[in-house]
Q: What sequence folds into this?
């Protein structure tokens, strides 16, 4: 597999950067991640919008303009000849002179095989709640320190992921957005202190559902008849259990299934 | 200058790691930093204690035992032949297979020249307060995302650094601990939700001062007659201004000066 480092195609096994990079020194960088289906990038304009927004917010210059970046991605897709994949664009703080100041960023583009597994939907997932508010939540930074630190807790609870909450408000999972379906079929998803996912954006655009962005308190979970998460790689997955509470009847709910079917169709996951 | 990557001495200009490392992918890693004075590591046992504690806390294995790590550091000191320096030991999440799971960590040891500037004490510093609580504050992780993000705010306020507070309690600066001196010469420093610095530890051991670890609220700042910060590179620096408030009489205070003189003596900065 090849990757791109600052405009150059190099073999993944030789893709290195200097250890003075601010990602290694201070965990400083941003990224975005999208899929390709049959060589076509999915929702790529939204992902590029968010990538340039993240870079700008974190004071990181992108050497390429949008068109140049798209051409670079296209070159990588052609080189690797991988129809269904995940593509990650990472922009780091660069080779810092003093190990603290931002330098000329390093732009890394990597591609990995991706196969969507439809069985995951039927199985659903279990979440374990944890009190935490991510820093700079609206920016897609490389900071997953808390999430990776919590992996043993997730395992100990036989859960699949963690669901963050802070001051009684649910926010998100580390790599996906969270939704609940209420008794009246109203669908609610948090709107503040979260990273706004592209799959979440697509769901909010569906005209035939009653979806709104609103606060979800911990107490709301007790009234939810369905819950699900959304992400680029997972599309939509039913949340069947949160801590020790079963949501709905332990099977993917009707509304969740409808949303899932729409998302895999427009996301070319059929 | 040479550095050590996983036990091998290499030139700094050639010191690279693969971009699959979890520091680059997910900002995941820990480090510690100490000085050498005339080739002698300063307070190195405390720094190694903290380093191994950080590694353990973050589920990262250290390939070397304490003695082996000390020998590696000694080799680097001899190779670079740099009497007064800063040495940083970094342990990253390693070359992750899936870009999320912890792998075999990469251990990096770097050395940089260090010259202590005594003029900085007379000048003192200005801090700007900012509401933030660092994640996993007691562990010396590589996460400085918020601090580096805030550099423009610090500049815009003509300040030298940021002072974090959360729920009305002062915690720390991103790279130093914070102290205030009250009217009765009692010295107070926060004790929870902070990284416990080694210079802070030395100061707390001074028998001739009335120092205690306690909550410092934002209101406490109004009653402070002196304030100062402590760190490995800065030793002790007087805080002469916090936001728009002048602390004391705009000169280094008596107690701060006493503490400073003791610290530079035992830290071999005279």
A:
């Amino acid at each position: 597999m090849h990757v791109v480092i600052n405009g150059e195609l190099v073999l993944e096994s030789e893709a290195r950067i200097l250890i003075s990079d601010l990602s290694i020194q201070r965990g400083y960088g941003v990224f975005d991640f999208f899929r390709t289906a049959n060589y076509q990038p999915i929702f790529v304009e939204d992902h590029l919008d968010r990538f340039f927004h993240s870079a700008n917010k974190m004071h990181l210059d992108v050497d390429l303009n949008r068109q140049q970046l798209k051409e670079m991605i296209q070159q990588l897709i052609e080189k690797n000849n991988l129809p269904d994949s995940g593509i990650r664009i990472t922009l780091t703080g660069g080779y810092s002179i003093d190990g603290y100041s931002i330098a000329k960023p390093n732009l890394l583009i990597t591609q990995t095989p991706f196969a969507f597994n439809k069985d995951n939907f039927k199985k659903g997932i279990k979440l374990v709640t944890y009190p935490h508010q991510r820093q700079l939540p609206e920016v897609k930074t490389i900071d997953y320190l808390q999430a990776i630190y919590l992996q043993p807790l997730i395992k100990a609870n036989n859960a699949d992921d963690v669901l963050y909450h802070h001051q009684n408000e649910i926010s998100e999972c580390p790599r996906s957005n969270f939704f609940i379906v209420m008794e009246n079929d109203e669908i609610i998803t948090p709107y503040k202190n979260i990273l706004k996912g592209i799959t979440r954006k697509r769901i909010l655009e569906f005209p035939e559902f009653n979806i709104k962005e609103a606060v979800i308190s911990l107490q709301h979970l007790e009234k939810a008849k369905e819950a699900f998460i959304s992400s680029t790689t997972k599309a939509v997955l039913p949340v069947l259990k949160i801590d020790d509470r079963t949501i709905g009847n332990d099977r993917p709910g009707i509304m969740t299934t409808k949303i899932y079917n729409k998302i895999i169709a427009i996301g070319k996951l059929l």
Notes: The mean pLDDT of chain A is 97. Chain A has two domains: 2-113, 119-266.
